[in-house]
């Protein structure tokens, strides 16, 4: 039997090290490179967006989400309207707040649905937003409506919807891509639901404070929220298509699908914005 060559021994050692890293949840060298590439691409895109000449940043934020939200019923901070309407500010800011909160609270690998009583409560929040949305449409179109619509109610019901969908997205991610999910841990429990209500309540108070100095933090956070949700969904789709099902120990492994998800995120938001601007000019 022939003895393996030094090159073969070295390659076998590399394979065993890579296998141990995967088993320990550590990203491989290629995954680390793709992770750095994603951070570089993201930073470059943000700089291009901010520094692109010909328009101020306020208009750019408005244009970035122009095809994604109605941009009616805007909230004013000082004399400046936020780029997202009241309801969408609640939905997408709540998504970002809720996702960060659940991650920090240790639900990043949770793979169990909330208890039934909490699911019913979340469903009631979604229903509340639907009722308020229908009522708002009735008022906008000159029909008989149930009660006078208000921007603060729009934001509150939007936040309830955001709180409801964020654990669902996390649950789908962990069931689809995680190799080490925690099936006994719910993605949301009653104590964390209470925490989310408090955090989102504070955000809503700030959003409706009218303070001009809060314009830029809330405008940037709202736009980041809607882009983050779209990007998260596209990243999950890309990871599934690339065969990452049940393979993800750490988010650091998702550099490649995250890089690929940047393109459809930009095309989706940018394409819809261009279409809406064009339709308005027609």
Spell out the key features of this protein:
mainly alpha, 4 strands, 282 residues, two-stranded antiparallel sheet
Secondary-structure blueprint of this entry?
Blueprint: H1 6-23, H2 29-51, H3 57-64, E1 74-77, E2 80-85, H4 86-104, E3 110-112, H5 116-140, H6 151-176, E4 182-186, H7 190-207, H8 215-241, H9 255-281
Parallel strand pairs: 3-4
Antiparallel strand pairs: 1-2
Helix pairs in contact: 2-9, 4-6, 4-7, 4-8, 5-6, 6-7, 8-9
Helix content: 55-70%
In what range is the share of β-strand residues? 5-15%
Q: pLDDT below 50 for ≥5 consecutive residues: which ranges?
A: none
Q: Helix and strand string, N-terminal first? A: HHHEEHEHHEHHH
Structural class: mainly alpha
Number of helices: 9
Distance between the termini: 79 Å
Number of domains: 1
Descriptive account of the structure:
The chain has a two-stranded antiparallel ribbon with strand order 1-2. The termini are far apart. With about 280 residues, the protein is mostly helical. The chain has helices spanning about 5-25, 30-50, 55-65, 85-105, 115-140, 150-175, 190-205, 215-240, 255-280, and strands at about 75, 80-85, 110, 180-185. The chain is built from nine helices and four strands; from the N terminus they run αααββαβααβααα. The chain is about 70% helix and about 5% strand. It is globular. A hairpin with a 2-residue loop joins strand 1 (about 75) and strand 2 (about 80-85). The chain has one domain (about 30-280).
């Amino acid at each position: 039997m022939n003895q393996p060559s030094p090159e073969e021994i070295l390659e076998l050692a590399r394979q065993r090290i890579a296998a141990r890293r995967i088993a320990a949840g550590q990203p491989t060298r290629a995954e680390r490179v793709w992770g750095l590439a994603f951070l570089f691409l993201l930073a470059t895109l943000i700089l291009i967006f901010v520094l692109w000449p010909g328009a101020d940043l306020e208009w750019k934020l408005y244009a970035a989400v122009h095809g994604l939200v109605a941009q009616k019923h805007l909230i004013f901070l000082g004399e400046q309207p936020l780029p997202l309407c009241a309801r969408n500010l609640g939905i997408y800011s709540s998504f970002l707040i809720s996702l960060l909160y659940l991650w920090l609270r240790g639900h990043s690998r949770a793979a169990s649905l909330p208890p039934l009583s909490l699911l019913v409560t979340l469903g009631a929040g979604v229903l509340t937003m639907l009722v308020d949305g229908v009522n708002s449409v009735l008022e906008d179109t000159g029909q008989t409506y149930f009660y006078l619509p208000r921007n603060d109610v729009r934001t509150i019901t939007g936040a309830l919807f955001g709180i409801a969908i964020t654990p669902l997205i996390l649950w789908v991610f962990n069931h689809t891509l995680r190799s080490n999910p925690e099936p006994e841990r719910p993605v949301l429990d009653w104590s964390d639901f209470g925490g989310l209500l408090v955090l989102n309540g504070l955000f809503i108070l700030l959003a409706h404070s009218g303070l001009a100095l809060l314009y830029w933090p809330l405008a940037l956070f709202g736009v980041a929220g809607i882009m983050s949700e779209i990007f998260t969904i596209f990243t999950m789709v890309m990871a599934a298509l690339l065969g990452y099902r049940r393979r993800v120990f750490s988010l650091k492994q998702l550099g490649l699908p995250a890089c690929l998800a940047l393109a459809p995120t930009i095309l989706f938001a940018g394409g819809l914005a261009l279409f809406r601007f064009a339709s308005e000019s027609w």
